[in-house]
Amino acid sequence: MATNQSNSGNPRVDLKYRKKKNAEEMKFQVISFGLMLFLTLVAFLAVWNEDFGGWYTVPFIMLLAVVQVIFQLYYFMHMSHKGHAVPSLFLYSGLLVGLITLLTFVTIIWW
Amino acid sequence: MKKWLPKWRIMLLFSMIALLLAGCGKPFLSTLQPAGEVADMQYSLMLLSTIIMVLVIVVVTIIFIYVVVRFRRREGDEDVIPKQVEGSKKLEIIWTVIPILLLIILAIPTVKDTFTLANVSGMEGKNKDKDALVVNVRANLYWWEFEYPDKKIITSQDLVVPTDQKVYFKVKASDVKHSFWIPSVGGKIDTNVENDNKFWLVFDSKKAEKAGGIFYGKCAELCGPSHALMDFKVKALPKDEFNAWVDKMKSAKPEVADADAQAGEEVFKKNCLSCHAVEAKDTRAEVARTAPNLTDFADRERVAGILPNNEESIKKWLKDPESIKPGNKMTGKYGNLTDEQIDQLTKYLMGMKVE
Amino acid sequence: MHAEEKFTAATFPESPEKATLEGKNKFLGFWLFLGGETVLFATLFATYLALKDHNAGGATTQELFELPLVFAATMLLLTSSLTSVYAIYHMKNFAFSKMMLWFGITVLLGAGFLGLEIYEFNHYVHEFKHTFTSSAFGSAFYTLVGFHGAHVAVGLSWILTLMIRNGRRGLNLYNAPKFYVASLYWHFIDVVWVFIFTVVYLMGMVG
Amino acid sequence: MSTLSQRKGFGATVWDYLTTVDHKKIAILYLIAGGFFFLVGGLEALFIRIQLIKPDNDFILGTTYNEVLTMHGTTMIFLAAMPLIFALMNAVVPLQIGARDVAFPFVNALGFWLFFAGGVFLNLSWFFGQAPDAGWTAYTSLSMASQEHGIDFYALGLQISGAGTLIGGINFLVTIINMRAPGMTYMRMPLFTWSTFVTSALILFAFPPLTVGLFLMIFDRLFGSNFFDPALGGNTIIWEHLFWIFGHPEVYILVLPAFGVFSEVFATFSRKRLFGYSSMVFATVLIGFLGFMVWAHHMFTTGLGPIANAIFAVATMAIGVPTGIKIFNWLFTMWGGSIKFTTPMLYGVAFIPSFVIGGVTGIMNAAAPADYQYHDSYFVVAHFHYVIVGGVVFALLAGVHYWWPKMFGRMLSDALGKVTFWLFFFGFHLTFFIQHFLGLMGMPRRVATFLPNQGWETANLISSIGAFFMAAATIVLVFNVIKTSINGEVAKGDAWGDGRTIEWAISSPAPEYNFKQTPLVRGLDALWIEKMEGKTELTPAEPIGDIHMPNSSILPVVIASGLFIAALGFMFRNEHGWGDVVGGIGLAITLLGMFLRSWIDDHGYHIHKEELMDDDSKEVKA
Ligand code: HEA
Ligand code: HEA
Ligand code: CUA
Ligand SMILES: [Cu+2]
């Protein structure tokens, strides 16, 4: 199998290029971290602030959680990189199974 | 080879039909002899699905037999390499679409009946049906309690109901989960420990007659060592007889005929009354009602749900309930009784009738 | 390519975690495991949602929870997620000591989170008599949040073990996948926490 | 370093199997353990049938009956059927995809030992006289009320063996995704491999709900929590959901590999490629997917309400469609073929009508209002034995006969195999067909006895007689195994002469490194393609070189026995002070094992080119 792929080619040039790419990516990571902090803050404020409260608070903070988790998965856990097709297939399958469970538990099967 | 095959199949078909007919079971117990609106509805659905399924089985079997007979490797074929067929779009579409159609035919009445059977709006609330009878069923480790909230009476073991009208049930369990099932009158519903379940049944008068006036009821959820013995009986009476029964129940008192029975009553008061009530108007809270109400005990079909109701059985029960229903909740709770006391109690118990 | 081969920054592969077959297998296997964990936590959440109002007369969610504490815990865990990203960033650049440093910070932040959680549980038990055995809500709460806490504890000891074991050896293709996978685990813990603070704490305050 | 063809004493052999990480030996371990538990579960089934042979029987009554019943269901599902399936998957899948081993050989061994520890733990309950007695479903009101430790054995035992199954599933997924030989694209994988893949995915998603459910059960029974205690706000229905969210996919975990086995058997013994390969794959995936949306069909009578019942009823029916696709594709695989009725093929053809009967009664169950009648009656018992015995057990018997030569290098006797088949086939239908009618005639399931005059006597008698035919069949099978292992015919590489997939291209049994050179797969049924071109071997994808092999390890046994000890300790925590201590020690052993695994580097070893050449010349001489 093509498992032993490495960064052949010209190592020197390669190295520089990679370092730069990694650093650039790291910048994105920090930005997304900032956004995550922001989302968390908004969620907490939404609940803290009684005036803001209302029927839409729950869907709103759930939405914030979902967005934040997408950041985690795609940036922190590199799911945006290639080679993550199978992992995302299985993660989403698991999510689907879990969501069906959750959905039934909060809707049709209780009295 | 080819000759005997069709004959063999006809034989099989015959024996299957014979089996079917013989297999209808008892009119008081079999789902194949439906005795009321609910069971009828379920029976039609069962028939519809059976027909569809037999159709499927027949089609598969015909292809199957043709294939295994026609394409077996015969002598001289050892080196034959069959054509390697990849598949066939047309065929595959056929056997995808036809089952879908068959399933749609089955799904429509399924959904419809599901909602019909779950409709208990006549039971309470603003749509309450004035004539509707409501029975609260409470399942307990190996015995059943039936409370008629509108009539303010309680009985046990033998459910008494009027025929040809909707009877609503509100069921629950007091200890572990059981399930309330009268096979010939309708499908079951679980008696849960944390909520009330509701459903309805209709008891058909003609079918009741055919069944001898009595239907068998079963506990259909594993509930412990005596799960198999948690039977109950259903007496389906014409409406006026039912009403008469209710009236008699309301005023029923044990009949104490002679000195023996009187002595029995004394023993009973001392040893048994803490659990068993002898009046249908038992006003104690549910948790205090830890044993079958005995008001109409002598009228019952069975002792403890399973033994024929006669003196011998009662004595047997009082002597050693554990040998009859392992794990029952009466064993060891009523002190030691002498044979004489048992005789007296039996006399007394035999006087508990309303009919 | 032999797993223990010595590398320089230049020869170190671009995705060291997936450069060997063993690494690729570990990487994939671990992701699949996380797929299973997703279902595990979803089930726990479902159970919690079914039971959260069944407090048998004990304290309600509104009475119990204190958002500042939860906010602080959240900040710790969230930051630790970023620090482990830094660690992996340095791993990819073959900067071993920097990687170790960032993993070290991650462990500290995680330990801080765990400390807050222990304090919080202790507080509930003593102030509110809200325990694992006091009601179905109590059982469900401590089970869900406790399962997460146990994951944090496991993650911490795992990363710590890896750091100690490999402290003197430097990076190679045998341990790179291990570090990478441990960091995935750490992120996943954070993902679960996002839902815990939203569903358990914030929604618990809303009612 | 190579252990090829070394002569060993008995002790060395035992040690070898305790420490092995070779998928082929692990397969044998699964086969032996699963086979043993099948005998135990079968014996329990016989006890059930003896007790029910006549009304008012008193052979086993009350609690004892419930224990036998519970252990029969639990043993058969978790300790017999699943491990036997794992035996076949371990024996075959790496060979079918041209891999040297599974992705994680160590984890593979650990999976086996966890399953085994859990199974032994569960059966230990017999020796304590406290077997689980709440049915294999262990509904929580009854299982909470159950005295003594029966249910603790159940919950802890299944928790341990469930962990083993879960990691086994992940292992196969990774193996199939990452370790396929060059050219083995997804759409060239043999169907058995495909079904292993989907089954493993189901395991990955279905076992966590069971894990959670079992934890809640353990917490409630041993640690005082209140998930299932209504008095403190608990709810027993949660368990029913968690169990069936696992339980329904579980039945497809059982049956999909069965489908896989038959897909191989039909193609091989019809000498035809599988009809409609792509739709077979599609149907397998679809069945797996739908399997997660139907669990509440086991709870139609729980009182979930008409909306839930209607949705779940319709969703359940949908599964009939992909299953039907498979049935007809198998029929048309045989159509136009050249069918050879070997023992595996007999099971194959018998499977079709048997399973269809079981499947269509499943659809009947799915019609919710009718299920109010069927539920918890013998109709359901008949349904699931038709699909399980007529589907899964037939497949296991077929698979074991089919791959026996590949696993052991000898053929099983075909004549004895056919005796087993006919006895089993006849006994199976005799036992279970009539149970449909018992159920319709109002007989509830899980009854320890029944009273006379309810119209059930004859049918129960017939059913019990049938069970003895199956017992006779099983005895003949065991005899067959013993006899042929002494003087059975030695198997060729392509043992059946009609092999299509690449496991038949190497010697029987397979060498420990499987393929000397990783093969190049040139299409579906790679070996068949080569054979049709007149070749006898696969095209290699690489030159001969050193082969990397994993090291043996005793740690899996250590880790598993740690959990065993822990479970034993925690079980007694409420009545003995030492309970928690022993539990802690057990956990410490497990953690230590895991720590050592992490700490000690394990790079494996290499079989050198020269040794491989040596083997070659030996083979030529032999
Ligand atoms: C290997 C195991 C296995 C398999 C494969 C199945 C397959 C199916 N099962 Fe079964 N089932 C069990 C094992 C299995 N089951 C067990 C163990 C229980 C009891 C658990 C317990 O309570 O202890 C159970 C119980 C059970 C119930 C609950 C009954 C009750 O307790 O009240 C239901 C209800 O819907 C059900 C449905 C189905 C359906 C619809 C299928 C379908 O997958 C079947 C699909 C197959 C076909 C339909 C045949 C082939 C198709 C064609 C030839 C095409 C044409 C067909 C039509 C148009 C209909 N099963
Ligand atoms: C893989 C699953 C599987 C398999 C293969 C079987 C196989 C069999 N099962 Fe069953 N069964 C279940 C899974 C399975 N079962 C489940 C899940 C339940 C529900 C449990 C519950 O309600 O909780 C159940 C319940 C069940 C019942 C219902 C009991 C009740 O509700 O009260 C019955 C009754 O007839 C029964 C019978 C049989 C029979 C006769 C066989 C036969 O096919 C068995 C044939 C095998 C043999 C006969 C082997 C004989 C062995 C020897 C001769 C050697 C012995 C020697 C030594 C041990 C040294 N099973
Ligand atoms: Cu009550 Cu079974
Ligand atoms: Cu199911």
TrEMBL record, chain A:
Transmembrane segments: 28-48, 54-77, 89-110
Biological source species: Priestia koreensis
Localization per record: Cell membrane
Protein's membrane topology: Multi-pass membrane protein
Sorted UniProt keywords: Cell membrane, Membrane, Transmembrane, Transmembrane helix
Keyword Transmembrane: yes
Classification via NCBIfam families: CoxD_Bacillus (TIGR02908)
Protein name stated in the entry: Cytochrome B6
The keyword Transmembrane helix belongs to this UniProt entry's keyword annotation: yes
InterPro entries: Cyt_c_oxidase_su4_bacillaceae, Cyt_c_oxidase_su4_prok
A GO cellular component entry from the record: plasma membrane
From TrEMBL, chain B:
Record-linked Pfam families: COX2, COX2_TM, Cytochrom_C
Record domain Cytochrome oxidase subunit II transmembrane region profile: where: 23-121
Catalytically driven reaction(s): 4 Fe(II)-[cytochrome c] + O2 + 8 H(+)(in) = 4 Fe(III)-[cytochrome c] + 2 H2O + 4 H(+)(out)
Cellular component GO terms held in the UniProt record: plasma membrane
Domain Cytochrome oxidase subunit II copper A binding: from-to ranges: 130-248
UniProt entry tagged with the keyword Transmembrane: yes
Cofactor note: Binds a copper A center.
Entry EC number(s): 7.1.1.9
Mode of membrane association: Multi-pass membrane protein
Keywords tagged on the record: Cell membrane, Copper, Electron transport, Heme, Iron, Membrane, Metal-binding, Respiratory chain, Signal, Translocase, Transmembrane, Transmembrane helix, Transport
Taxonomic superkingdom: Bacteria
Subcellular location, record wording: Cell membrane
Gene Ontology BP terms: ATP synthesis coupled electron transport
SUPFAM superfamilies found in the cross-reference section: Cupredoxins, Cytochrome c, Cytochrome c oxidase subunit II-like, transmembrane region
Cofactor list: heme c; Cu cation
Domain Cytochrome c intervals: 259-353
Function: Subunits I and II form the functional core of the enzyme complex. Electrons originating in cytochrome c are transferred via heme a and Cu(A) to the binuclear center formed by heme a3 and Cu(B).
NCBIfam families membership: CoxB
Protein name, per record: Cytochrome c oxidase subunit 2
Organism: Priestia koreensis
UniProtKB/TrEMBL annotation, chain C:
Gene3D superfamilies: Cytochrome c oxidase, subunit III, four-helix bundle
Subcellular location: Cell membrane
Domain Heme-copper oxidase subunit III family profile: 28-205
InterPro entries (UniProt xref): Cyt_c/ubiquinol_Oxase_su3, Cyt_c_oxidase-like_su3, Cyt_c_oxidase_su3-like_sf, Cyt_c_oxidase_su3_a-hlx, Ubiquinol_oxase_su3_dom
Molecular function in Gene Ontology: cytochrome-c oxidase activity
Membrane topology: Multi-pass membrane protein
Pfam families: COX3
Gene Ontology CC: one annotated term: plasma membrane
Matches recorded under PANTHER family: CYTOCHROME C OXIDASE SUBUNIT 3 (PTHR11403:SF9), CYTOCHROME C OXIDASE SUBUNIT III (PTHR11403)
Record-stated family: Belongs to the cytochrome c oxidase subunit 3 family.
Record's protein name: Cytochrome B oxidoreductase
UniProtKB/TrEMBL annotation, chain D:
EC number from the UniProt entry: 7.1.1.9
Lineage: Bacteria, Bacillati, Bacillota, Bacilli, Bacillales
GO annotation (BP), single: respiratory electron transport chain
Enzyme class, first EC level, given as a word: translocase
Reaction catalysed by this enzyme: 4 Fe(II)-[cytochrome c] + O2 + 8 H(+)(in) = 4 Fe(III)-[cytochrome c] + 2 H2O + 4 H(+)(out)
Ranges where the Cytochrome oxidase subunit I profile domain occurs: 9-522
Residue ranges of the TM segments: 27-48, 68-93, 105-128, 153-179, 191-218, 238-262, 274-295, 307-332, 344-364, 384-404, 416-438, 458-482, 554-572, 578-600
Pathway in which the depicted protein is active: Energy metabolism; oxidative phosphorylation
Protein name: Cytochrome c oxidase subunit 1
Similarity annotation: Belongs to the heme-copper respiratory oxidase family.
Molecular function in Gene Ontology: cytochrome-c oxidase activity; heme binding; metal ion binding
PROSITE patterns noted in UniProt: COX1, COX1_CUB
